[in-house]
């Protein structure tokens, strides 16, 4: 399959211009482009620029994403916490507003916990935890999502993919620790946009559940279940099937652990914000909720000593002997960091499918000529 290459700054510029072309303000376009291009640079294409046409659809066909929404407002606050209402605006702007407030309060009080309701998709979760780590803080975030995942022992699509991301700064030459994971066996976007599964026509077992509770291995059927099995109704009326929780559909592979983590995210996000749980958020529905926590290392002692000790622990685990010399043992965040370094040096690689989707939007907003200049075919 053909692939294209674009310089980071060139892709950023054209994508931001395209967002402005479909009606985003400069502030909105900047916030969303920052995250999407970073995702592509890190090879997280399921949360990258391919989302642009999806967000356009949210605006035009469902109205769940409101570009003219008022600014996020704080509805409850203490010295170490706040609850925010996003008014169904652009998720990236809402998240950025909440994270900046979290950072400020954590630097003042040592810690800040925030819950946000009535937001929208905020991209890959690690973007926001790293934003806190950039300020020397431990950054934690999670979000509920559209309903996509079945609880253990069920074929009802009630839970979101509900990611959790934690970024922990260190010192010296040891990169920060970054865990960014969905609580289902495979993220929604990775299933739908997998080139490997699409070419083979086969999906591994115990990832997608049919409405009758059996699992799907035929990829086209799995896409039908995952992408088209839901309805726009606020309340699901019958089993639709969906994605299995982390660990799979049964207790045999500890599926209850993924289910438990997904429920934890529901309570942290929709619960503490007074918002909507994933069960009542259909595809492209509004009401997504966020959770953020920023912690200053000072709450654990001398910050330099704390970070030095974290570095020591990480370095000890880097000494693990790999089973195969061709596959070194990695720390969470290493692979994405490597992809980003390569992207900054040699350009961001996008598939023909992603470029095609972006090209359609570029044509629509009169940016086709500028768009074509950004990409070259990968040798």
Account of the protein in words:
The chain is an alpha+beta fold and 379 residues long. Among the domains are: 1-62 and 347-379, Hypothetical Oxidoreductase Yiak, Chain: A, domain 1; 73-185 and 251-300, Ribosomal Protein S8, Chain: A, domain 1, CATH 3.30.1370.60. The chain is built from 13 helices and 13 strands. It has helices spanning 8-21, 26-41, 51-62, 91-109, 126-133, 188-192, 195-200, 219-228, 255-273, 303-317, 334-346, 352-364, 368-374, and strands spanning 3-6, 73-78, 81-85, 111-119, 138-143, 164-168, 177-181, 208-209, 215-216, 242-243, 288-295, 348-351, 376-377. The strands form 3 sheets. It has a 7-stranded mixed β-sheet, sandwiched between helices. It has a 3-stranded antiparallel β-sheet with strand order 12-1-13. It has a 3-stranded antiparallel β-sheet with strand order 9-8-10. Helix 1 packs antiparallel against helix 2 (26-41) and helix 2 (26-41) crosses helix 4 (91-109). The longest helix has 19 residues, at 91-109. The radius of gyration is 21 Å and the shape is globular. The mean pLDDT is 93.
């Amino acid at each position: 399959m053909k692939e294209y290459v674009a310089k980071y700054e060139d892709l950023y510029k054209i994508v931001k211009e395209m967002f402005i072309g479909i009606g985003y303000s400069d502030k909105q376009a900047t916030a969303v482009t920052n995250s999407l291009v970073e995702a592509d640079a890190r090879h997280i294409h399921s949360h990258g620029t391919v989302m642009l046409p999806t967000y356009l659809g949210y605006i035009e066909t469902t109205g769940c994403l409101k570009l003219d929404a008022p600014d996020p407002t704080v509805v409850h606050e203490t010295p170490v916490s706040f609850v925010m209402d996003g008014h169904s605006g652009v998720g990236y702007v809402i998240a950025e507003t909440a994270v900046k407030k979290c950072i400020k309060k954590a630097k003042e009080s040592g810690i800040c916990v925030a819950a946000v309701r009535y937001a929208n998709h905020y991209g890959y979760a690690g973007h926001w935890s790293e934003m806190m780590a950039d300020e020397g803080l431990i950054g934690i975030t999670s979000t509920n999502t559209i309903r996509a995942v079945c609880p253990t022992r069920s074929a009802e699509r009630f839970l979101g993919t509900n990611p959790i991301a934690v970024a922990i700064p260190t010192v010296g030459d040891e990169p920060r620790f970054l865990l960014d994971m969905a609580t289902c066996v495979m993220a929604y976007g990775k299933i739908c946009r997998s080139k490997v599964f699409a070419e083979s026509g086969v999906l591994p077992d115990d990832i997608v559940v049919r409405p009758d509770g059996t699992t799907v291995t035929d990829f086209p059927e799995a896409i039908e279940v995952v992408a088209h099995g839901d309805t726009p109704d606020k309340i699901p009326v019958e089993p639709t099937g969906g994605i299995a929780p982390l660990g799979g559909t049964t207790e045999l592979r500890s599926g209850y652990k993924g289910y438990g983590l997904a429920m934890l995210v529901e309570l942290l996000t929709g619960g503490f914000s007074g918002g909507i749980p994933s069960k009542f958020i259909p595809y492209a529905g509004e009401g997504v909720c966020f959770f953020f926590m920023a912690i200053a290392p000072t709450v654990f002692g001398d910050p330099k000593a704390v970070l030095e000790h974290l570095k020591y622990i990480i370095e000890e685990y880097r000494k693990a002997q790999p089973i195969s010399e061709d596959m070194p043992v990695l720390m969470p965040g290493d692979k994405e960091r490597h992809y980003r370094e390569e992207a900054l040096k040699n350009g961001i690689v996008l598939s023909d499918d992603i470029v095609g989707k972006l090209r359609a939007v570029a044509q629509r907003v009169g940016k086709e000529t500028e768009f074509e200049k950004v990409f070259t075919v990968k040798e």
